Amino acid sequence: MPDIKDVFTLYTQLSPQEQKKLYSMISYQLPIDNDFEQFVKDERFTSGFVCPHCGCIGHISRNGHIYKTDKDGNKTIDKQRYVCKDCGKSFTVLSNSVASGTRKNLSIWESFTKCMLNGFSVRKSANICGIHRNTAFAWRHKLLDALQQPAEKTRLDGIIEADETFFRVSYKGNHKRSSFKIPREARKRGGLAHKRGLSKEQVCVPCAIDRKGHSYGKIASLGRIATKNLHAVYDGKICSESTLCTDKMNAYVRFAKSKNIQLIQLKSGKEKKGIYNIQRINNYHTKLKKFMDKFNGVATKYLNNYLVWHTWFDLKGHTQLEKADLLLAKAMTSILSFHFRQLSMRPSIPLNI
Between vectors from CA 140 to CA 135 and to CA 145, what angle results, nearest 5°? Predict the structure, then answer.
């Protein structure tokens, strides 16, 4: 019987394309622990139990069990129930989490996170994981909603490069709402904006990245950005004593002065002043646009989620499997109340101010 060395020898004889295909096939079949409740408990309550309703720490006690009934009418213990002594509400380990209400086991969620980190479409992810495409779409935004919480804790320091990029406003996903009326003339998907240059037909996304590779970006405004929009996006994200490198946009002058941080402004993306440049942020924008292009137009109301997705897609220093484990663990620690029926009812343009 061939051993692992023989298998590896055969693997090295494959072409690079065949090696990549084999790796993809194996990675989706790796056996993992399917105890979903224990996984969430280990990730979510490492420092003790926290009430998912009010955030109380420590004042938690057991409160019976949730039972499940089989086809023969026999009852067995399904989940442990807890109660918060502060707010009086009961909960389980999965309450108000990404896994709340799920009927799929942990291995399927693990496979789905791998699909996300490969940038697969909803339909391709659904086929790989054996779930419906609507479920895949809901899971995508469940995970991304949960990842917004750790993303908001991002702190940039040292030399920080900042610039804006623009996306055409897309009203995809709003037309089934009876009260929604598109505020402009309809156009074919992928078509040009009706107005040339910067206009309110484009949404502005300020992005910043430091020399450690930490990045942050969020929808700020329609059309040209103002100082108040920069404050809405970057307040609490840029550490004091940092150096901000930007283009010649006047809004950054007022922003840097109000935050008391050093500002280095450059005429163009290729200009350098010693160690200062904005080539990293320009490269970040190039990769972001390439990532977005594969989805053939992202609805503006979901754009912030896709910005977080790209951050994980572009994460350095980890293998795909490590990133998948880290993504799922981070998502499970977030307190999240998600209702699929409310997903399409989100504001068509989610502005910060």
Answer: 125
